[in-house]
Amino acid sequence: MDAMEKPKYDGSLIGKRIPKMDAPEKASGKTRYIHDIDLPGQLHAKILRSSEVHARIVAIDTGAARALPGVHAVITAADVPWQRPIGVAKDHLPLKGDRVRSPRDEIAAVAAESEDIAAAAVKLIKVEYEPLPIVATAEDSLKPGAALLHGEDLIVTGPDGKREVVHKASHDNVAMTFNYGQGDIPNGEAESVVVVEDVFRLHYVTHCCMGVSGVIAEFDASENLLLYSNTQVPFLHKREFAELLGMDPGRIRIIQPPIGGGFGSKLDIYPFEPIAIYLAKITHRPVKLIFSREEEFMASPTRQPVLLKMRSGCRSDGRLTFRDVETVHDNGAYTSWGATTPFVMMQTISSLYRVPNCNYRTRAIYTNNPYAGSFRGYGNLQATFAVEAHMDKLAEAIGMDPLEFRLINAQDPGEVTPQGMHFKSCGFKDCLQTAASRSDYQAKFSAARGKWNDGNPVKRGVGMASMLHVGGGAKIYPSDGCGTIIKMDDFAHITLITGASEIGQGSETVLAQLACEELGLPLSAVTVVNNDTDVKPWDVGVHASRTTFIAGNSALGAARKAKAKILAAAASKFGRPAERLDLREGCVIDKATGEKLIEIGKLIRSLHFSDKAELVMTTFYYEPPSHKQDKEFRGDVSAAYAWATQVVEIEVDTETGIVKLLKVIGAHDVGRVLNRLGIEGQIEGGVVMGQGYALTEDLIVENGVIRNPNFRDYKLVTAPEIPEIDVSFIETMDGEGPQGAKGVGEAPAICVAAAVANAIYNATGVRITALPFTPENVYRALHSNSQPPTWIAAA
Amino acid sequence: MSPQPATTGRPAVAPEEGVAAIETYAAPRSLAEAVALLRTGEATILAGGTDLMPQSKTGRARFQRMLMNVRHVPELRGIRGTQDCVRFGALTTITELLDSALVKNRFNALWQAADHFASEQLRNAATIGGNICNASPAGDTLVPLLVFDARVELTSEVNGAAARRTLPLAEFFVGPGRTQRRATELLTAVEVPLPPDGFFSEFYKFGTRPALDISAIAIGFGAVRDGQRLRQVRVAFGAVAPTPIRAAKTEAALASQPLPAAIEPALAAAAADIHPISDIRASAWYRRELVRNVLRRMLNNVTQN
Lengths: 795, 305
Ligand SMILES: Cc1cc2nc3c(=O)[nH]c(=O)nc-3n(C[C@H](O)[C@H](O)[C@H](O)COP(=O)(O)OP(=O)(O)OC[C@H]3O[C@@H](n4cnc5c(N)ncnc54)[C@H](O)[C@@H]3O)c2cc1C
Known about the structure:
The complex is a heterodimer. Chain A is α+β, with helices and mostly antiparallel strands. Chain A has three domains: about 25-30 and about 480-620, Aldehyde Oxidoreductase, domain 4 (2-Layer Sandwich); about 210-300, 2-Layer Sandwich (Aldehyde Oxidoreductase, domain 4); about 300-475 and about 630-780, 2-Layer Sandwich (Aldehyde Oxidoreductase, domain 4). Helices cover about 25% and strands about 25% of the residues of chain A. A seven-stranded mixed sheet of chain A has the order 3-5-1-14-11-12-13, sandwiched between helices. In chain A, strands 9-17-16-15-10 form a five-stranded mixed sheet. In chain A, strand 20 (about 495-500), helix 14 and strand 21 (about 525-530) form a beta-alpha-beta unit. The N and C termini of chain A lie far apart (about 75 Å). The model of chain A has no long low-confidence stretch (mean pLDDT about 95). By secondary structure, chain B is an alpha+beta fold. Chain B folds into three domains: about 5-70, 2-Layer Sandwich (Uridine Diphospho-n-acetylenolpyruvylglucosamine Reductase, domain 2), CATH 3.30.43.10; about 75-195, Uridine Diphospho-n-acetylenolpyruvylglucosamine Reductase, domain 3 (2-Layer Sandwich); about 200-305, Enolase-like, domain 1 (2-Layer Sandwich), CATH 3.30.390. Chain B contains 13 helices and 14 strands. Chain B has helices at about 15-20, 30-35, 50-60, 95-100, 100-105, 110-115, 120-125, 130-135, 140-145, 170, 250-255, 265-275, 285-305; strands at about 25, 45, 65-70, 80, 85-90, 150-160, 160-170, 175, 180, 185-195, 200-205, 215-225, 230-240, 245. In chain B, the strands form four sheets. In chain B, strands 4-5-10-6-7 form a five-stranded antiparallel sheet. A four-stranded antiparallel sheet of chain B has the order 11-12-13-14. A three-stranded parallel sheet of chain B has the order 1-3-2, with no helix packed on it. In chain B, helix 11 runs antiparallel to helix 12 and helix 12 (about 265-275) runs antiparallel to helix 13. Chain B is globular and about 60 Å long. Residues about 1-15 of chain B have low confidence and may be disordered. Classes of the chains: A alpha+beta, B alpha+beta. The interface of A and B includes residues 655, 709, 715 and 779 of A. The complex binds flavin-adenine dinucleotide. Flavin-adenine dinucleotide binds near residues 50, 117, 122 and 140 of chain B.
């Protein structure tokens, strides 16, 4: 045994800079994404999408496609009369039979021997359309007499031939509404010395995952379904696929290969997934369907575009009095998670700062545009953009320093907001002060204001914005839990089987760290298994910045049970009370003396090979102590809340409109840093995503058509524009968090655009209320050649 | 790089379609062989492929029956200076331009254009000949090449022998993506006269980001300085007309009086020289504003130095 490699120990793993466990595979190009998986006998699928934006389908002719050699199946809605609707409102059939509502709409699909043949067959399908009027904006959609997007019952025919209305005809184009209120707006107004009002317009952007969407579906000989899927919510989707297919969920297994980016885009089922399944069912072959980049732009979800009207007021002492908000969301043609982003927007509007009186009304409106899904931040970027603009405006109106104004209104630990959120740990004021002092915010803010009229066409400015986001899960389902199984083998190697999903956020590494810390083992002693619904225990999925917190607590629980078992065995073997023992550096030790009693592996082997053989294998299910909101949207929906302040420094060239982001100074209340390298990466990546939202990214949709479905014209931030990023961590040691940690996944992307807007004002004296701040948009605003957004007349 | 119009959001119909037209592939090893293969005009020429490849995916490129890779034709390579002229082989890559001391010392605007061109990977593959033959109004080397009075050399096979003709670059462009090149001709080189002593030049490219962007406008400027007077003034614009253009009115305005008095008349003249359109990269109005503001800034810099 001495010749064997020995692990190295360097004390506690918490807070260290630990490379992600999957980094070597990814960096060496060995990771097998779904694109790299090919099953024996597999067919390739391609989808025919609509060439029209809004039309009735008169006829579909698939004859020539079916006749093409190498084609195994061509399907249209007529071939799957039993298909059922998908999406959050179940208003969406995967294959459209009589009507298309957007150019992404799926009309037919082909499974063939190769991608080339499938593509050729798709081109042979002829569709005859009868155009319908295009509803191009939410504003048009609300006008009296606008074409109704879902004005007819959606009917399917079950396998038994029974017709069923699956989505009822609606008499208007309103897809979803939310209304929230606290306090009394007129009272708040009466107490105000100043009131400000603006309309904000937030644009379309999309996730731009480097790995395009894809799925492989296969039925085995017993008709069990195996899906290779990039889903972020495997267990929820297992159930949903079962409903879609009329199958027993127990016969569906989902394997999640490593994913080339999620960011919320894989929270819903999209038509391509059931379509691949139908084709697999019909052909009795594995069917692989992978998007082209153009399809990814057209047919994956977007961030929700929002028109937002806000009135806010404050007293002369700086205290906020009221906030009255109304939003109209362009829902696109079908309803996905985007329609529910008001859940999160509401939290920022009601509770980022203390505001006693608050109203929030919102409607998601059907149009012929792309439909919005969930996207990192989930509405919070939009809400924060408006709220933080008004924090600056109100401060200016009463002549108060913007930092001081925020400190007066910022939440403190222990507060319970009118919406019912309980901020058990809250480092908000620390975030504000740390970001301000590290950026020299106040001095720079005043200096920039003094230079508005100095004649220099290139201006500098600083801007500040803060955010509140769930940091301990979000109980939007009856359970917000996650299960873990820990299996220790006879060499003390841990197999950590977690319900959580890895989507590049580094969860594997953090979960392994937490378990190892508890069990006194090195990271090299862990294998994390997290990608197979037949193996892993239940979990809600990866969303709401919840994995480190929820799956972390779950992993800790299972590790603690394993530890107790090992210590109990050691206690009886060495005749010392278990309380006196601990696990460290791969050994059972005596706490008082530090004496190493036995290697953990050796102890486990003695358990295995004794006459009363025992395995060290434990399970744990963690359910956070949070609550589902009631019908009024009140309730402590998360077990912890995350806070952050970001200050940005920018340069504006007023002769070209170019805004350069020079530096981002962030202070994040993350509870506690678990993996410093991981959390820095998470924050830097989020900042860059926020930068793209603020400055460069713009999915241009005109009359329902995406005009720039490619990376040439859809401009992601590239390496040279990435600013210097200075991050401070505020460690509030959350009482419920694993080792004190809170969620951080979405946080860093949320305030960048809001801070940049404030910085542009600080640099130039011009307040721009519409995104994105692309050079032409900024130039127009600076030179009075654009209209600020206006509220919808028909609303 | 395609100029306007932008692709629509329609599905990318069978990307293979264009490429599927190709029946044979040729990789000639000499110029004679290459022009012989071009005799019937039924070959698509492949250099770096950085335009051809993406265009084949969007269906913009029409492929001939033969795909002819000219990268192994030695006569198309190299930068060679003579007494009064520099000859850039058509296969000269953007990286080679950047690495050339001759380009850096004598053709600053061309060097700057190479510096702002796409990204490292693209610069290694993209060729000057491809940039010219693609004839995008926003092609970055075209603007400085116009400033330097470049001429293109075209070679074809006539009666079994290679025949050359040259013409000024300014006359080569006909419209977006359209040139005077005949289907039987290979662009073999670009010849650029050495600018007179004291000639200085500048290039400015406007994109929304510093790397990997297609110019929304580009400006090339060159002149010989004589106190506050400019002589031999040459101004060229990219992405503000169907082809890259020399700006005759602007040049005349700048030559007619000393700086800084010449600046405002030159800006007015520039407004008459350009004919921008609106596309997804910029509106015509904004392009006009940019040309005015950026040209003013360039001329102010000249005045002050
Ligand atoms: C991501 C990206 C970024 C880009 N950024 C820029 C940029 O910043 N600035 C810019 O100007 N361009 C840019 N481009 C466009 C492209 O890289 C350039 O136009 C490049 O110079 C083309 O050269 P090539 O050798 O790759 O041409 P190819 O693609 O090989 O050919 C282009 C065209 O010219 C023809 N052709 C090529 N050589 C000859 C020849 N010797 N004789 C006759 N015909 C010939 C081909 O048949 C084809 O029609 C970009 C392209 C991409 C993909």
